[in-house]
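Justification of resources, computational component.

The compute hours requested in this renewal are based largely on the per-chain cost of generating structure records like the one below. Each record pairs the submitted sequence with a full structure-token output. That output is archived, and it is also reused by downstream analysis tasks.
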Amino acid sequence: MRHAFVVLAITLLGVLFAGIDANVIVRDVATPLGQSLLTLVPRDLGAPNVVTGILLAYRGFDTIGEVAVLFMVAAGVGLVLGESNQRRRKVDATLPPAQPATEIVENGARILLPMIAIFAAYIIMNGHLSAGGGFQGGAVIASGILLLLLALPKVGVDLAFLSATESIAGILFVLAGVAGLVFASGFFDSRILPLGTFGSLFSAGSIPILSLLLGIKVGCELGVIIVRFRG
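The structure output for this chain reads:
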């Protein structure tokens, strides 16, 4: 019965994805709306990455909502797992201690963690120039936290520090949006800072700063969720 259910599930998924693939239309030419955005965003915001420009300037308010949802998920996970983790600790106390990671795993993690941090910083700070941005860089930060917990559990992660950093980044993100109202023409208007030279690292107004704050906030929120699951 169990094997029949697995075969049925795989068959249904195959039919589903075959239907999706058959209806996918690959456009060689952008739609009129897409073409206008490809022209407007670089000229108006000074950001070659149109997606990041739209997310952090034109749709900055929506981005706040998205990270707020992520924050509520982190808070909900902590609430749900709080009691179950206490019960699990009582059970774990009766079991033999877990085996530590091997020396190869520990040394590999120590080599990879700085590289992950540099890669995350690169993705975040180049989000207005190429593929990447705050959300993607934050996810890379969280992957580093996960690796740390798996390979070097004795090092631990300060949950209070992650929560405080996430809150500070969120407050600064909102204040940057309010600054657009005061010093420019609207909420999250990135032109509160000079647009600079198109295509350079320090350009596109406040978008790199917004991307940095967003990356820190997302990375800390996902990190809190990972730490909560570890218990």
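The longest helix spans residues 60-92. DSSP finds eight helices and no strands in the chain.
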